[in-house]
């Protein structure tokens, strides 16, 4: 039987293609994405990374052996420290003060995604938590590489593109895939089915997050 990751990617291939070609990513690659849309995205993504880091920390707490505890603890640190440094650069360039960021609420798509990841991380077994966390790693890497292949050197979002198309992030993604496949290999069919559901749900939320950034989604009331 093929590994969980192979099955999950194939099952959700159409969803990935919808993400790859959606207006936000098409315009990001072309360098024509408006600054307000990217600003909305980068603020919401900074909020998202806090929740994502917490979910990774919970994965570390549930991990069955020390190597995976270290892996997910380090991934949580990366989400909070390294990736937020990328966002901080854009914040400085765009004049977004810390108090402005703090006062900006999570958008509906961001709130939904973070709530889903934290509920899964608290309430589901380790294997299912990994199924929910994997799309953020893997889809970002694939989108980053795709955009890198067609973006010009003068693209105003070059720092973002280089981060997610880079070798260091690629290594983190490979480690996440390996951990998820390892977890699925020892899980019951019922748990693997829940892993697939979690992966599909998180993939849909990836699309929703980028779509929300393009629409500059906000609470209607």
TrEMBL record:
Gene3D superfamilies: Heme oxygenase-like (1.20.910.10). CDD domains: TenA_C-like. SUPFAM superfamilies: Heme oxygenase-like. It comes from the Bacteria. InterPro entries: Haem_Oase-like_multi-hlx (IPR016084), Thiaminase-2/PQQC (IPR004305), Thiamine_Salvage_TenA (IPR050967). Residues 23-215 form the Thiaminase-2/PQQC domain. This is TenA family protein.
């Amino acid at each position: 039987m093929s590994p969980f990751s192979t099955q999950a990617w194939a099952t959700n291939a159409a969803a990935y293609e919808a993400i790859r070609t959606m207006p936000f990513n098409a315009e990001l690659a072309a360098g024509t994405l408006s600054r307000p849309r990217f600003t909305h995205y980068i603020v919401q993504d900074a909020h998202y990374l806090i929740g994502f880091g917490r979910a990774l920390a919970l994965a570390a707490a549930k991990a069955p052996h020390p190597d995976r505890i270290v892996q997910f603890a380090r991934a949580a640190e990366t989400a909070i420290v390294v990736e937020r440094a990328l966002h901080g650069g854009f914040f400085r360039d765009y004049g977004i003060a810390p108090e402005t960021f703090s006062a900006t609420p999570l958008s509906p798509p961001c709130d939904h995604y973070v709530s889903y990841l934290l509920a899964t991380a608290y309430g589901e077994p380790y294997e299912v938590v990994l199924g929910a966390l994997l799309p953020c790693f893997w889809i970002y890497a694939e989108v980053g590489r795709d955009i890198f292949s067609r973006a010009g050197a003068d693209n105003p979002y070059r720092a973002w593109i280089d981060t997610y198309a880079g070798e260091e992030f690629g290594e983190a993604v490979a480690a996440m895939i390996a951990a998820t496949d390892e977890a699925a290999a020892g899980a019951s069919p019922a748990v693997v089915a829940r892993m697939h559901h979690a992966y599909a749900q998180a993939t849909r939320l990836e699309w929703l997050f980028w779509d929300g950034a393009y629409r500059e989604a906000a609470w209607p009331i």
